[in-house]
Design goal:
Elements lengths: L1 E5 L6 H12 L2 E4 H10 L3 H12 L5 H11 L9 E4 L5 H13 L6 E6 L5 H6 L1 E4 L4 E4 L26 H23 L4 E5 L4 H12 L1
Parallel strand pairs: 1-3, 1-4, 2-3, 4-7
Antiparallel strand pairs: 5-6
The structure holds BIS(adenosine)-5'-pentaphosphate and zinc ion (2 copies).
């Protein structure tokens, strides 16, 4: 399966991805995770991406399209993939179609994490992540066994630099202005499944499984 996850910041894309990935043996490509790793390692890509990310703006189409083009070549992605946070502009969506066409493939389903903006600040400001694995926690909705500590490795959890109310506002603006048109792009192709992303994680998972079966 070739899946795209689209939704505003905090809508649950990163929370649902590992579950779908294991269920269907897909690779998980999250452009945000890849960019954060590049920023942390201070690679040339990371240096170029940092300013936009800190402001909650989108990184240039060329940079992210390049990352995805490379990542799709990985052997683990040949059976199928989950794109989490890509495409985020109509230009990115068109480029993705071109990349897949060359490989004789196409997008099977777009999971649209539909949710009201008002719920997102609490989700974003309570989020803690384990950076090396991408595991995600929430102080109220998904607390770790010990505060600030990853359940699996015992390593410390961190908060994302862009998870502040002010930067969230700008991320939401980017979403409505630049990413919602992507949902319409795929609606015209008839491959969008809408998810009730404000519900409990288990309920969202079960709607996903129905949409994919
Ligand atoms: P990115 O990392 O993609 O961030 P985002 O889209 O803002 O999405 P989030 O990761 O914040 O939300 P999520 O939906 O994964 O939520 P989660 O599951 O963690 O992008 C970051 C930046 O990188 C962008 O701003 C941009 O600069 C750049 N970038 C990335 N891709 C790009 C692209 N294609 N083009 C250009 N620039 C790009 O959940 C959030 C919290 O809520 C967690 O604490 C979780 O435990 C909790 N939670 C989850 N589900 C539920 C639920 N059902 N009920 C209660 N709590 C829940
Ligand atoms: Zn995420
Ligand atoms: Zn909107």
């Amino acid at each position: 399966k070739r899946l795209i996850l689209v939704g505003p910041p905090g809508s649950g894309k990163g929370t649902q991805s590992p579950l779908i990935k294991d269920e269907y043996c897909l690779c998980h490509l999250a452009t945000g995770d890849m960019l954060r790793a590049a920023v942390a390692a201070k690679t040339p890509l990371g240096v170029k991406a940092k300013e936009a990310m800190d402001k909650g703006e989108l990184v240039s189409d060329d940079l992210v399209v390049g990352i995805i083009d490379d990542a799709l070549k990985k052997p683990s992605c040949q059976k199928g993939f989950i794109l989490d946070g890509f495409p985020r502009t109509v230009v990115q969506a068109e480029k993705l179609d071109e990349m897949l066409e060359k490989r004789g493939a196409k997008v099977d389903k777009v999971l649209n994490f539909a949710i009201d903006d008002a719920i997102l600040e609490e989700r974003i400001t309570g989020r803690w992540i384990h950076p090396s694995s991408g595991r995600t926690y929430h102080t109220k909705f998904a607390p770790p066994k010990a505060p600030g500590i990853d359940d699996v490795t015992g390593e410390p959890l961190i908060q994302r630099k862009d998870d502040t109310p002010a930067v969230l506002k700008s991320r939401l603006e980017s979403f409505h202005r630049q990413t919602e048109p992507v949902i319409d792009y795929y609606k015209k192709k008839g491959i969008v499944a809408n998810l009730p992303a404000e519900k409990k994680p288990e309920e969202v998972t079960s709607v996903i499984n129905k949409a994919l079966s």
